[in-house]
Design brief:
The complex is a heterodimer of chains A (416) and B (405). With 416 residues, chain A is of the alpha/beta class. Chain A has 17 helices and 13 strands. In chain A, helix 1 packs across helix 7. The model of chain A has no long low-confidence stretch (mean pLDDT 95). Chain B is α/β, with parallel strands linked by helices. Chain B has 2 domains: 261 residues, Crotonobetainyl-coa:carnitine coa-transferase, domain 1 (Rossmann fold); 90 residues, formyl-coa transferase, domain 3, CATH 3.30.1540.10. Chain B has a 6-stranded parallel sheet with strand order 3-2-1-4-5-6, with helices on both faces. A 3-stranded antiparallel sheet of chain B has the order 7-8-9, covered by helices on one side. In chain B, helix 1 packs across helix 7 and helix 6 packs across helix 7. The two termini of chain B are 39 Å apart. In chain B, 58% of the residues are buried. Classes of the chains: A alpha/beta (416), B alpha/beta (405). At the A-B interface, helix 1, helix 2, helix 6, helix 7 and strand 6 of A face helix 2, helix 6, helix 7, strand 6 and helix 8 of B. Strand 6 of chain A pairs antiparallel with strand 12 of chain B, so a sheet runs across the interface.
């Protein structure tokens, strides 16, 4: 059993006011050991109405979306728009180290809870705003549904088939880029605070946070006025095109045709494997993989080679291809789904997944584990997501000294 | 302290390649750390070999891809296959706070630069190894890029059309996610060291760190046995929801209508044509049931407007919408301009070009791209003389021996 102070953020408190744009930021900080208090409106977060649901029962305590992204937090309810609610929040802010919020820029100010006001109460505070477009600027108050964040980031443009619309992911994850950038920014501000004693406001734009996913697309335009586009199964870089996804016997894989000192050992092993089963023609067998460079390769010949690889891949399973790749440095990876990942011997060997107990649901749920491993930098896990108002008593009565009588009145008055 | 950058005084050795490790090192350079990029002519860092090249002309100092993930670093060329190269690396470790590496598991130990070795040189050193699948396990030796990482992390299979072969996700999805988790781990380690005085070693898998994004899907499978099916741009709680073709060549605007109020606004914005009053579209449930038809009708309207206009009209009316931006659009995006997302720097060989900032702004202690990326070995002399305090003679001797190549 670890002590709270063993975790990197163990001694610190986070107030988490975010909606679905920010949930993963708080749960990441909970993983780093911080005491994260999720503050929900009375009745619970609107995000508890987002599916999927446990056994498909649409109830706020059964949203697997909400539970998935809020594990490890404590939960309280608070009506920030009520006068007393605002006062209570300010009291909590006095002893907090971080506040996370994702409201439309300016909303906190209308409540008298903007950064200036909070900074007066607690100059050491790191206040982090996670918004679709950033805290200021011409689009700062635009609505930012998930798909709009993909669209604005340049990434959506690069995904899909040329004859159809650009694509986003089926399972929304644009906001989570903003969330982990918010952790990085908050931690940087926090590090400065540890050195100087000064808090500050951290302003995260989800649109910008995804832009790195486009890798060099912006540079292609900036330097060479070359526009990378969505090309279906292919990726086109300058003058050459390569195919990445291929079907195999039981699904799909991704394969990089790479030569030179990086790719040659794997390509040789793959060709030898194909040859041993009669799938490599003389051309493939005699190719000089050290000299091979996809960027200068003949397009028609590349298509012929791809057809040959495809014929072979169709005879092999994802698992077979992965095992050989790991052994010989072949650049093939299965296109896994959740089930594949849960059954992967690699994740099992690293004890990656964790079971978190939900007694109220009569079961445990499987979560991804620590995003890094270290004997010193510990990751805290195993604590389920809070129920609505679960820690009201602990935080308000025991923590702030609000009396039992007032607690009852606050509850009746819709403040907590 | 106001003028001081967050990581002023910290020294980071970037011994990593491609995107993840270098990107995290760049984040620290952006906020004031001295980051030394250790590379070699003997094995040129992979990203230097990747397009785009300035003017379309290949060259190890001409890659915009490399530049964008190595801004503001000092470039040291050092041949680690020579004993003296290893010795110089060790002298740098003595001066360093953080070492980032991404070699295949075991190589650093072989060079005598594993964590146990480094700890002897600098007891409170912070070291992170970042690889696709981590340092142990049956597939630990797996080599691949973020392109493969996207497949392994289940991201590639979450994008596509139900009636077509999956395209996987563009680029190296796991790499960009992993940059942030490496940075998070490193700042956590700095705080740990501040409190305890101890250094640490971190084993980071670029694939594993992508999975928290999909937590709800793991829960859905463990509770309900369900696997997500790709469905284009649709959303179970919204309709219309997608990217719609607009006027012009390959121009699109994303539009998302979740609530009844948004639907009413949407209808008004498009001029309340008769079909919007059809029962088929009266409720979310009805719109979901008739979504194919709905999407066609929406596109019949958007096709007559520019994507910028659709975005402006929708947002003014309270409906979430955004131009599907290509790279050129991003340079013209007024919001990205306001935030100075792109930073112009002058590179020694490429000349002036643009680098990207991270998405966070520290309002009290601003940072951001702090300089161009180095050409290979650009600061070798500076690092050797100013940071390691070498004499001219020693420096010249090492050059002659090919150690600084």
């Amino acid at each position: 059993m670890n002590n709270q102070s063993d975790y990197p953020l163990g001694p610190y408190r986070v107030l988490d006011l975010t909606d679905e744009k920010g949930y993963l930021c708080g749960s990441t900080m909970a993983g780093l050991g911080a005491e994260v208090i999720k503050i929900e409106p009375v009745g619970g977060d609107a995000g508890r109405d987002i599916g999927p649901f446990f056994k498909d029962i649409r109830e706020p305590e059964k949203s697997l979306f909400w539970l998935g992204l809020n594990a490890g937090k404590k939960g309280v309810t608070l009506n920030l728009e009520s006068h007393r609610g605002g006062e209570i929040f300010k009291q909590l802010a006095q002893s907090a180290d971080f506040i996370l919020e994702s409201y439309t820029p300016g909303y906190m100010d209308t409540l008298g809870l903007g950064y200036e006001a909070l900074y007066k109460i607690n100059p050491k505070l790191v206040l982090t705003s996670i918004t679709p477009y950033g805290f200021t600027g011409p689009h700062s108050k635009y609505k930012g549904p998930e798909i709009a964040c993909w669209a604005g980031s340049g990434y959506m443009w690069l995904n899909g088939y040329p004859d159809r619309a650009p694509l986003r992911f089926t399972f929304p994850q644009a906001y989570y880029h903003g969330c982990i950038d918010a952790v990085v920014g908050s931690m940087m501000a926090f590090w400065h605070r540890q050195m100087s004693g000064e808090g500050q406001h951290v302003d995260v734009s989800i649109q910008e946070s995804i832009a790195f996913e486009c890798l060099s697309a912006q540079q292609s335009w900036d330097m060479n006025r070359f526009l990378l586009k969505r090309e279906g199964l292919y990726r086109v870089f300058g003058s050459y095109r390569v195919r990445y996804p291929f079907p195999c016997k039981d699904g799909n894989i991704i394969f990089n045709l790479v030569g030179g000192h990086i790719g040659a050992p794997g390509q040789k092993a793959l060709t030898a494997w194909m040859d041993s089963l009669g799938y490599a023609d003389d051309y493939l067998k005699n190719l000089d993989w050290e000299a091979f460079d996809a960027a200068t390769y003949d397009d028609a010949q590349a298509r012929k080679m791809e057809a040959q690889f495809e014929r072979f891949f169709l005879t092999r399973t994802k698992k077979e291809l992965m095992e050989m790749s790991a052994k010989h440095g072949i650049m093939i990876a299965p296109m896994n789904d959740v089930k594949d990942m849960l059954e992967s011997p690699q994740f099992k060997a690293r004890d990656f997944f964790v079971e978190i107990d939900y007694p109220e649901l009569g079961t445990s749920l499987t979560y991804p584990g620590a995003p890094f491993k270290s004997e010193q930098i510990l990751w805290k896990t195993g604590v389920r997501a809070p129920r609505i108002g679960e820690h009201n008593d602990e935080i308000y009565r025991k923590g702030l000294g609000i009396s039992g009588t007032e607690m009852a009145a606050l509850s009746r008055g819709g403040v907590i | 302290m106001k003028d001081q950058k967050v990581f002023s005084g910290l020294v980071v050795l970037d011994m990593a390649t491609t995107v993840t490790g270098p990107g995290a090192a760049m984040a620290m350079a952006n906020y004031g750390a001295t980051v030394i990029k250790i590379e070699s002519q003997a094995h040129v860092e992979t990203l230097r070999l990747n397009a785009p090249f300035a003017g379309g002309k290949r060259g190890i100092n001409r890659s915009g891809y490399f530049a964008n993930f190595n801004a503001g670093k000092l470039g040291l060329s050092l041949n680690l296959t020579t004993p003296k190269g290893i010795e110089i690396a060790k002298r740098l470790v003595k001066k360093a706070d953080v070492v980032i590496e991404s070699n295949r598991a075991g190589l650093m130990q072989k060079w005598g630069l594993g964590y146990e070795d480094l700890k002897k040189i600098k007891p409170d050193i912070i070291m992170i190894s970042t690889t696709q699948l981590g340092q142990n396990g049956p597939y630990a030796g797996y080599r691949g890029y973020g392109t493969q990482g996207a497949g392994l992390a289940g991201v590639g299979s979450l994008i596509g059309w139900p009636d077509r072969a999956p395209t996987s996700s563009f680029g190296a999805y796991s790499d960009s996610v992993a940059i942030r988790y490496v940075a998070i781990a490193l700042i956590s380690a700095l705080e740990y060291r501040r409190r305890t005085g101890h250094g640490c070693y971190i084993d980071h898998s670029q694939v594993e760190c992508c999975l928290p994004f999909q937590s709800p899907l793991f829960l859905d499978y463990s509770a309900n046995g369900r696997l997500t099916k790709i469905n284009g741009n649709r959303d179970p709680d919204a309709a219309p929801h997608g990217a719609f073709r607009c006027q012009g060549d390959d121009r699109w605007c994303a539009v998302a209508v979740f609530t009844d109020q948004e639907w009413e606004s949407f209808c008004k914005i498009i001029g309340s044509p008769a079909w919007t009053r059809d029962k088929k579209f009266a409720t979310l449930k009805a719109r979901k049931a008739n979504e194919d038809e709905l999407e066609k009708l929406v596109e019949d309207w958007t096709i007559h407007h520019s994507a910028e206009e659709v975005m402006g009209l929708m947002q003014a009316g309270g409906v979430g919408a955004a131009l599907v931006e290509n790279a050129a659009d991003m340079f013209n995006d007024p919001q990205l301009q306001h935030r100075e997302h792109f930073s112009r720097q002058v590179h020694s060989e490429i000349g002036p070009h643009h680098y990207e900032n991270f998405s966070f702004r520290l309002t009290g202690t601003p940072g951001g791209v702090s300089g161009p990326a180095p050409i290979l070995g650009e600061h070798t002399e500076y690092v050797c003389k100013e940071i390691l305090g070498m004499t001219d003679d020693e420096f010249v001797e090492l050059i002659g021996e090919g150690v600084l190549q």
